Structure formats: C-alpha cells, structure tokens
Amino acid sequence: MDLSSYTLPDLRELLTKIEAEIDQRTATPQRATRKKTPKQAQKLPAPHDVMPDEALAAPTSQVASTTTEAEGSAPPAVRKDKPPAVIKYRNPAKPEQGWSGHGRRPQWVLDWLAQGKPIEDLAA
C-alpha cells in the first residue's frame, strides 16, 4: 500500500479509522477467545501423559501399556493394508540381500555404482 500520495490530514484520519477498527476487533468475544487458546493449550496434557483421574480409573495393564508406548519400547505397528515391497534389485554377492528401489540405497548398491556398473545389472 503506497501512502506517499496521502496528505498529512488524510493520514491522520486513516490512522484514527485503523485504531477504531483495531479496538472494535479486540473487544469482540471471538478475539478474546482466540487470545486464551494458547494458554488453554499449554494446560492440556501431552498425548503420552496420563492424568491422575485417568490413571485411577483405568486398569493397571492399560496404564502400563500407555507409558511403554510413550517411551518408545513398544514394537512398531505393522500395516496390514499395505503389501510388502517388491524386490527389484539383488546383491550378486549375497542374493538374500534385496532392495525395492525405494528409500535409501543400501551400501552394496552404492559400491556397485561406484565401480561404474549400471544398476540394471542388479535387476532381480
């Protein structure tokens, strides 16, 4: 917004209108609620925290499993809806080692390529 074409009285009038609009917006209940939201969010427990009343109401096995998952010692979840990746490349020195072509390249693929050999030679 270019204000250089405004005269000084026009700028003061504009300033008065802007301040009035700011006062009106900060006085509405909706804005007051928005200002309180971050403080309310800080009071909420983290997803892995267990509130005292929840700990008393839940069976001990449920509380214990919640804390183990939060600490990261629970086994990773296995997706049942996604089939395992198809092996596209095999290590000629160790055929049990395969790579789907997705994600980080294994060291044996990097070594193969460093020798100047084409990746197509590793195709399964």
Automatic annotation (TrEMBL):
It holds the Pfam family Histone_HNS. This is DNA-binding protein H-NS-like C-terminal domain-containing protein. GO terms for molecular function: DNA binding. InterPro entries: H-NS_C_dom, H-NS_C_dom_sf. Residues 22-107 are annotated as: Disordered. Residues 59-70 have a biased composition (Polar residues). Residues 79-124 form the DNA-binding protein H-NS-like C-terminal domain.
